[in-house]
From TrEMBL:
InterPro entries: MttB-like_sf, MTTB_MeTrfase. GO terms for biological process: methylation. Keywords: Methyltransferase, Transferase. Belongs to the trimethylamine methyltransferase family. GO terms for molecular function: methyltransferase activity. The lineage of its organism: Bacteria, Pseudomonadati, Pseudomonadota, Alphaproteobacteria, Hyphomicrobiales. Its EC number is 2.1.1.-. This is Methyltransferase.
Amino acid sequence: MARPIVRSGGREARIKARTAAAPVYLPAVNRQVGPINLLGPDGVQKIHRGAMRILWDIGIVFRDARALSHWKQAGARVDGERVHIPEELIMELMSSVPPRYTFHARNPARSVQVGDNFSIFANCYGSPFVYGLDGVRRRSELADTKNFLRLAQMSQAMHISGILPAEPQDVPVPQRHLDLVSSALKLADKPIMGSVISEAAAQDTIDMLRIVFGEEFVDRNVVVTALLNCNTPLVWDETMLDALRIYAAANQPALLTPFLLAGASGPASPFGGVALLVAEALAGMAYAQIVRRGCPMVMGVALMGVSMKTGAPMLGTAEPGLMNLLVGQMARHYNVPWRSCTMWTGSKMADIQAGYDSANSMWPVMLGGCNFIMHSAGFVEGALGVSYSKWVQDSYQLEGYHRFFSGLADEALEPFLSDIQSVGPGGHFLGTDHTRENPFSMNPLQNNDSYEKWLDDGAKSGEQVGVEEAKRQLDAYIEPSLDEDLSDALDEFVAAKRRVYAAAA
């Protein structure tokens, strides 16, 4: 396929490009730290046997006539809507899921690896509310969605620009995916995600990607990933399965994701909860292999606890962290990539709780060897809101995680012994060549100045600092170029489809 030819963005863009430092984009994290394996072989087998019993003895409901027919033809036992899948069948189907794939961006320099020791960061997804640049909570709009796609492009460590950082309430639902997908393709040149609100929306997504990448390239390569949720416990519904068939038939992966509220939609037990979500995810991944053998798929999980006082979700607590470690170990047992969620909080602003919750959710996921890390920036209010301030602060934190999990480079010790000898007792190392050439990684939003300088600079809170940085990045943003013919073809497709959906309304 001839990859898209870039064009200039005009005089204003050229001026910005000369005056603003371009982001230095980081590749997928090639993890050199971890993963942690909590379980021995007997523990892995305990969860595996539990998942197999759920799949065969209890069964998974597939609320979709086509899926039921497919499962029956494949050799499963189908009782009404409940599908009982024997271990031999599930494992045979799972054997064709690739352990790793390349996720292509329209700019080849932004393509990333998914699976094995690689981890990628994707933005948040689907918030109905926005905490704006004025600090006011309101319903999210398309302008916010586009702004967050711009901020994703500006982030050096955000690998996936996504599709739905905020749910645009000002666009009719049947047409919403047209704006989302076309905006994701135009406003960022990183890999994107696809719409799953209907079979038609999924097909439109694939068709738009074929315009930009070419039909043959899309059929042979991964250019989009869909997020599909299981209705835990034990239900895959028609809407999700409709979308899954579209993506799998086009050789595009999905994150097959049970949403487990430990203590509510699933057991509070780490072992019981993980056995349940493994069974649900395996059922979805295996079904995708019935649709198209060898299609990449990702074992997904969205994990949080539930407050026993209010029933509200709790983020960043210990038990979901431990469960994420178990999920990672089970994904390695099945030799498939896995997805989880991080950097979310129940807080309503970028405060100390938001920092604690986000860090406490990220560390177990990274230490568990997660490959596709969703919600890596912006979430507040238990994922109901996305904050401009927290988004940019989270984005800078991702650079720190990238540095830590990239591990240590081998170094000869002799030069440092020479430095120590030269400096001698009571000296300092500020002037050595190594200190000048190899500074520590720094987060520009974290204030380490004296108290007096902090006061002189306005005594700004973290919330203020984040808002100012979001405004700066949006002002410095330059839209990545897209071939004019491809852009026009995309616009024509969107306009034609919009007329179709408007007529059907």
